[in-house]
Structure formats: C-alpha cells, structure tokens
Design goal:
Strand order of the largest sheet: 3-5-4-6
Oligomer: single chain
Order of helices and strands: EHEHEHHEHHEE
Distance between the termini: 38 Å
Radius of gyration: 19 Å
Structural class: alpha/beta
C-alpha cells in the first residue's frame, strides 16, 4: 500500500499509519519541515488547492482513494449573532483578500467536492462540520472541543495574519496588531455564536479515468450545488452529511 499525505503537518497521522501498516510506503508533504528529525518527509511548496487536486489525481492509482480535510477560515453564525460589522467578519474578509492578492486564494468550502468530481473521482462523499469558535455551544463535548479551538485562535491569530496582511495587503505590522487586538475580544465573547466550517471528503479514482477540465478561480458554486449554503443551511443529498465539529450529528 502506498499513501501520499498532503499537508502532513507534524506528521502524526502519517507516523501512526506507518506503525499500523509497516509494509506500506507513506510520503508526507507540507509547507514547512516541522516534523521530527527522525521522520523522513518530502517537503513541497503548495500554493492553491485546485492544482493540488489535479496533481493528486495523477498520483492516485486506478481504484485508489483520496481523502481531504480542509478548514474554511471564514467565520459564520446561523443566528445572526455574528454581525457583518464585527471585527471577526472584517478579519475573515481581509485574510481572504490578502491571500488572494498573495496568490494563495482561500476556496469556499463548497468548492472542493465539485473539484474532485471534475477531476475524475467517483463516489465522492462529503461530511461538513461546524467548529465553534468558543464555548458558546450547550453540548459539554463541544465546549471541550471549542476550548481547544479558541486556544488555537488566540495563540495563532497573529502568526496566521501577519505575513499575509503585510505582504498581500501591504499593511504595516502595527496596523495588523491593532486589528487583532480588536478581534480577540470577539473570539472570547460567547454571545457571538460563530463557527468555522470543516469539511472531510473522500472519493475513488475509477478503474478507467475520465479526464475533465477543472475551472480556475474561486467562482461561487453552481445553482445545482448539493452542499450547504454559506449561511449554514443545507439541501438534502445522500453524499453530504452535516455534523457539529467532530462529535455527533447535528440534531
């Protein structure tokens, strides 16, 4: 068995898979060599998701499978508690604008399933998660999960923002810090029921590959799109599931 882990991060998943299937060959790729020194990883500069999907298609053998896990950084709420005039909304808009100007566009989470299907994968299934920003959910489990999410935001917000906003938007570092100082209190505000969208997709490369062309850019999904709308609503479809974070189905 041969596995390619694109965006391997710390390499934990790849190492666990190697321990479980010692006869397999597993290659991990990522932007930065942050893996343990004794873990051999292939490092590749990845720019945008769409060409990456096309490249993966060529590396996947007929009958092989692909799995994708992506987070859409845009903050949303279903009850209107996240106002368009909020700093969280402003940060979402600006980080995506900066990424676009820096030639690293942030796709809408509704785009990946269509890309996989147009790249030739079949039996594509998508699971959509809502990852709460802080401890506003009533569920005890989701409160625990959101506590980790909040910690990641508070610790990593400047690291995510500084490079993109100073290079893409040409902001001064002081301007970025001012925005982050105004954004962090809203991350902590449990009256704002915000969340980010996480998707998991998997599909199979058919035995006989049909080559199609994937359109470029980040155009909105077509009207026939069977996934959730950006506001969090969803159309019924047997290949789309919607869950709260990684714990249980939404009721």
């Amino acid at each position: 068995m041969r596995i390619l882990d694109v965006g391997t991060g710390t390499g934990i998943w790849a190492m666990e898979m190697a321990d479980k299937y010692p006869e397999s060959t597993i290659i991990g790729t990522d932007l930065s060599p942050v893996q343990p020194s004794w873990y051999e990883a292939t490092i590749q500069n990845l720019r945008s998701a769409e060409p990456r999907i096309l490249r993966i298609t060529g590396h996947c053998k007929p009958g092989g499978y692909i799995e994708m896990q992506e987070l859409d950084p845009r903050f949303r709420s279903d009850d209107g508690s996240l106002l368009p005039s909020s700093y969280l909304s402003y940060w979402s808009d600006k980080i995506c604008e900066a990424a676009e100007l820096y030639n690293r566009p942030v796709p809408l989470y509704t785009e990946y399933k269509r890309w996989l299907e147009q790249a030739g994968f079949v039996d594509v299934k998508q699971i959509v998660f809502k990852s709460p920003t802080n401890s506003w959910p009533k569920s005890k489990q989701l409160k625990e999960v959101s506590a980790f999410q909040l910690l990641a935001h508070l610790d990593g917000l400047e690291g995510i923002s500084m490079g993109l906003m100073t290079r893409g938007l040409q902001w001064k570092p002081e301007e970025v810090k001012v925005l982050l100082a105004k954004t962090r209190p809203e991350l902590l505000d449990i009256s704002i029921h915000s969340y980010q969208t996480v998707i998991v997709l998997f599909g199979r490369k058919p035995d006989k590959q049909i080559v199609t062309t994937v359109s470029t850019g980040s155009a909105p999904p077509p009207s026939s799109w069977d996934g959730p709308t950006p506001s969090g609503g969803a159309k019924e479809n047997s290949n789309v599931e919607h869950r709260e974070c990684c714990l249980g189905l939404v009721e």
